[in-house]
TrEMBL record:
The keyword Transcription regulation applies. This is DNA-binding response OmpR family regulator. Keywords: DNA-binding, Phosphoprotein, Transcription, Transcription regulation, Two-component regulatory system. GO terms for molecular function: DNA binding. InterPro entries: CheY-like_superfamily, Homeodomain-like_sf, HTH_AraC, HTH_AraC-typ_CS, Sig_transdc_resp-reg_receiver, Tscrpt_reg_AraC-type_HTH, WalR-like. Residues 16-131 form the Response regulatory domain. Residues 137-156 are annotated as: Disordered. The modification 4-aspartylphosphate is found at residue 64. It comes from Roseateles terrae.
Length: 269
């Protein structure tokens, strides 16, 4: 069932909740519990959930951590990076309610966790609280004449958003990037999926992209700051300044110090 399914009369102003879960029993149980008070929309995968969130603009999203095509953390990151859905409260549904999972989810912008198996009273209470808080935030934004989100009217490409988020993560963590398998896990993707996204959308391997980003960022630091070469090397993920200097010379055809001198003289673009 993927269409909006609700016992609330058509045209009613009850909040719309998007439930994203691939477990039929959970979908059915939660839908039956909530549809008496709220309008409900359902999705069975991460991609479908992202598309429905963008199209329907629900007031709240219930998101399972384990989805067949991407984990819920990756989807939450996408939802929070899109102006259309950034302000929508996300409540995680998880059978693995470990502290690390909760910290990870809350750090991505989720507002709460609901543990499986579900207790009806707890689900209803948490949903009501976060819908009320969201309504208060919206009322405050309206009173301050906050401009609406501006979009190009086109459906977001889920794969494009995944690549954007992976690139953003890499650029923010150049100094301490883990190997590709761990990098994929932290972003919320399988390694093969991450490799395929970079190949198809950027025409590069992940390692090749990381190497180029390190060189380009290192060049900017050399040209625009007074940081020592050793500090620059550490900032872009090289523990050994000699290795950085060798990689830099291979990429730019001159040593880091020669590049800095040329940049200060205005002969480096």
């Amino acid at each position: 069932m993927t269409e909006t399914d609700s016992a609330v009369p058509p045209g009613a102003t009850a909040p719309l909740i998007l439930l994203i879960d691939d477990v039929p029993e959970d979908l059915r149980w939660l839908n039956e519990l909530l549809r008496k008070e709220y309008r409900m929309a359902l999705a069975h995968s991460g991609h479908q959930g992202l598309q429905r969130a963008q199209a329907l603009r629900p007031q709240l999203i219930l998101l399972d951590v384990g989805l067949p095509d991407m984990d819920g953390f990756a989807l939450c990151r996408l939802l929070k990076s899109d102006p259309i859905t950034a302000a929508t409260p996300v409540l995680f549904l998880s059978a693995h309610n470990q502290p690390d999972d909760r910290v990870n989810g809350l750090g991505l912008g989720a507002v709460d966790f609901i543990s499986k198996p579900f207790w009806p009273e707890e689900v209803l209470a948490r949903v009501r609280v976060h819908l009320a808080l969201a309504a208060q935030r919206q009322a405050k934004a309206d009173s301050e004449d906050t401009p609406p989100d501006v979009t190009d009217g086109q459906t977001r490409n889920p794969e494009g958003l995944l690549v954007q988020e992976a690139v953003r993560y890499i650029r923010a963590h150049l100094a301490e990037l883990p190997p590709v398998p761990e990098l994929a896990r932290r972003i919320g993707l399988h390694e093969k999926r991450l490799l395929a996204l970079f190949r198809d959308h950027l025409g590069q391997t992940v390692s090749g992209f990381v190497s180029e980003e390190r060189m380009q960022h290192g060049a900017r630091l050399l040209a625009e700051t007074g940081m020592a070469v050793q500090q620059v090397a550490l900032s872009v993920g090289f523990n050994n300044p000699g290795n950085f200097a060798t990689a830099f010379r291979t990429r730019f055809g001159q040593s880091p110090m020669a590049y800095r001198s040329a940049a200060r003289e205005g002969s480096v673009q």
